[in-house]
Amino acid sequence: MSKLQKILVRARRQVFSEMVGNNPSIFQGEGYDFIELREYMAGDDIRHIDWNITAKMQKPFIKIFREERELNVVVASVLNGSVHFGSKKFKQDVIAEIVALLSFSTLKNGDLLSSYIYTDEMVSHLKPSKKLHQVQKSVDEILNFDALNKKVDFKFIADSLFKRLKRKSLIIIVGDFFEIPDFRLLAKKHEVVAIIVRDHLEEKPPQMGFSSLVDPESGSILEGDFNKSSVKSYAAKVHAHDRELYSRLRKDQIRFTKIYTDSSVGVLLRRLFEGR
Fold first, then answer.
1. Chain centroid to CA 213
2. SS3 state of residue 49
3. Across the chain, where does the E strand assignment appear?
4. Residues 6+ away with beta carbon under 8 Å from 265
5. CA distance 66 to 36
6. Calpha distance 72→165 (Å, rounded)
7. What is the mean pLDDT of the chain?
8. Which residues pair with 124 in a beta bridge?
9. Which residues, 6+ apart, have CB-to-CB distance to 172 below 8 Å?
10. pLDDT (tens digit, 9 = 90+) per residue, 198-234?
11. DSSP-assigned letter for residue 17
């Protein structure tokens, strides 16, 4: 069985028999059918806080919604060179798994699905559809895309989606986010969710001594002594970058999660979209 077939079979089984089998939807958005109130939990969307109930109860409560109308779900995969990396599994393969799960979930809900592949340009676009074959086409494009030597331009991505999407949409942007995006305007027009895909090894690399590393985006070679001090300094820079990234996403009211290449993708997606 090919990698494509394995991803599709596993994702379809999770969505149609396990992942959302007892749930009306994993996607929740503004203005949809109100279900219940529950106490606020870390990671919930603060825009859903019911301030009247919060004032009465003296602790924060949020509203839980279920879609009452068709959602327009847009999945944008960002495939710059750094996704061609992974200690056990390439980040690019994990992005394909995520897209498969999100796509099957969208179609199971009866919502419209469209997908994009971006680098510093728009590489591919599949128009809104409710047909299952779109999932296979989308995942196949991701798996077979040559990401090496490709760069990312988040400004181009934000501007492109802002101009192209006329109807309010749920936009899910999947990438490794080693640059800080500005989705502020996009998030005012649409509901935007960011899924950060990383490998533990790129955040906390081991000591390698004198080595040569190739930048997967530029192709340039970096030579040096990657000793205890230098890898510790590198890990600190990644940590600082992520703190700034999370701060920016929260400021722009964008929900997000981080998925590592050895994570259980289905569990983390369900937590994200259930707001837990």
1. 27
2. strand
3. 33-39, 61-66, 72-78, 112-118, 122-129, 170-175, 191-198, 209-214, 221-226, 255-260
4. 94, 97, 98, 101, 259
5. 10
6. 10
7. 87
8. 117
9. 73, 74, 75, 76, 102, 193, 194, 195
10. 999 999 988 888 888 888 888 888 888 888 899 999 9
11. I
CA distance linking residue 8 with residue 16, whole number of Å: 12
* DSSP assignment string, 122-167: EEEEEEEE--THHHHHHHHHHHH---TT----HHHHHHHHHHH--S
Query: Does position 146 have pLDDT exceeding 80, yes or no?
Result: yes
Sign of the dihedral defined by the CA atoms of residues 220, 118, 255, 84, in that order: negative
pLDDT exceeds cutoff 90 at 23: no
Listed residue (195, 220, 208) closest to 271, CA to CA: 195
Residue closest to 174 by CA, chosen among 72, 74, 276: 74
Interval 30-55: pLDDT, tens = 445 556 677 887 767 777 788 888 88
Residue 231, Cβ density class (10 Å: 0-12 exposed, 13-18 middle, ≥19 buried): middle
- Half-sphere exposure in the Cβ direction for 74 (13 Å, CA): 27
Pair of tokens at residue 80: 């710059």
Nearest residue to 134 via CA among 87, 100, 86, 169: 100
